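Quick log. Single chain, no ligands specified.
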Amino acid sequence: MKRRTLLQWTISAASVLPFARLRLFAQPRELTSEALATLREIAPTVLPASLGPARIGETIDKFVGWTRGYRERVPLSHGYGHPRLQKTAPSPVPAYVAQLAALDADARARGGRWQALDVETRRGLLDAAFTKAGVKALPQRPTGQHVVADLMAFYFRSTEANDYCYSALIQREICRPIAITTKRPAPLAGNDNQRPPMRPLMVSLSNQELSVVSEDHHAGS
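-> predicted structure:
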């Protein structure tokens, strides 16, 4: 390669690369304050009401922590019969921000902030959002399809939700000695006759679709 050709290629590459970097860095790497505020408004609609505001807030904080710790293109273990190595997808945060902005805009178009809308309107907005995103069932884990479905999966597929549902320390997703599995799980501390009654969850989970159906919460878990 001639020196002049090499210099021309170097200059042209240098003029392009900064813009590519700018496009990459322009995408949000964390939920914006506006997105987080919208998520906090929507969460009580899809998480168990009997958790109470404090524990719902803790669940949101854990979910936000998960988004902050998300690592892209990390090799994943593959199952038997699937020899092709898979890696984690790009961060779902940019899509989450856009989806939350869309839900906030839809709520405002209906007359106000999310919490000011009636149950049927909130249900309709979430059903439409899930349909648009192609969400048909509660995912086994957050997949990036839609932020609200991922928040639900983050909680309802968790050890905490399983223990809360059965009022017992089952600890399904925690590594335990085999001997423990032969014993009856201990009851959750502070839940004996003190726990608020479980009410049906505001989401219906079926094999075909994920849809919001009732103001009260917990039947789906």
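The CA atoms of residues 46 and 152 lie 7 Å apart.
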